[in-house]
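Async update (no meeting this week)

Hi team, since we skipped the sync, here's where things stand on the single-chain job. The sequence we agreed to prioritize is pasted below, unchanged from the tracker. I ran it this morning and attached the output directly underneath so nobody has to dig for it. Comments welcome in thread, and please keep replies under the output.
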Amino acid sequence: MSNTTNAAIVEISQTAGKFQSSIVLQYDNKYIDVKSILGLFTTLMTSGDYNLHVHGPDAEEAKAAMSAVFAKHNLSVNIVSE
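Output:
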């Protein structure tokens, strides 16, 4: 795993940690709490399509911030509107 991937995982987790909302990454049939660095390490090693589920009092701000950090690291993510 490259240092670039490590930096992306740390930044994604730190960004998610700033919000009260629940932020869950869905990949295939796996659901990973984005605030968990270990979960991200095991999931983001695989390239693919990711869905991000955000629920909570600051969900709109969290969606915008998470979308920006994924884009910064050239990771494709679909923010699920529920």
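Quick observations from my side:
The chain has a mean pLDDT of 89.
The longest helix spans residues 3-17.
Reply here if anything looks off.
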